[in-house]
Prior knowledge:
By secondary structure, the protein is mainly beta. Helices cover about 0% and strands about 55% of the residues. The protein is built from no helices and 22 strands.
Amino acid sequence: MRRNALRSLRSTSLSYHARGWLLTRSVRANTNGTPNATFDATTTLAYDNIGQVTRITQADGAYIAYVYDDAHRLTTISDNLGNSISYTLDAAGNRTAENTRDPSNTLTRNLGRVYDSLGRLHKTLTAPSGPNPAAETVYTYDANGNQDTVTDALNRVTNNDTDPLNRLIQTTDALLGQTHYRYDARDNLLQVTDAMGLATQYSYNGLNDQTQLISPDTGTSTFTYDSAGNRATQT
Length: 235
């Protein structure tokens, strides 16, 4: 449930398959959370027989469809308008190429990825498109495999710092803006403080389920769970 500009509340209800797969997400029109068949906005998810999402349909009928190869790896995403993204995979399942096409099947974006000998993303390469030149982003890692730096096409560097438990604790961008991350003893993320000093806080129950989110942008959200640990409501 989220608060809109009029400060009224809307509840979100979730339903699940017997196997724990999310089937529907309904944003209730009634502020008391009761169903309203006419005005509720329901998103529906469909799955294949092993639980991979094959289609997500919005309340207005718009959808996104997903196609997988025989190894159950995602190869294509398309929408009801005819836009699509296709992936080329290497033997390890890494995405080495990503092609985006519009409804006329015209290629609008080509992205390549290069991996190091440990299978970590080393470089992304974007082919020139229209007025946009080719672009390259390079990633480096520390001795523990944590992402250390990201250098974009304009040679701007973002540095990542981790603690002895390999948890990200700080990012520093090219303008020296810093974002800080804080965790509890169970490695749950407790707080993110951005370069402006704005903090987003997270709370959890004894099972490490997130129960509350306090955001400077969206206010306070609370979450409940069913006996299987599936998220049941969001307020």
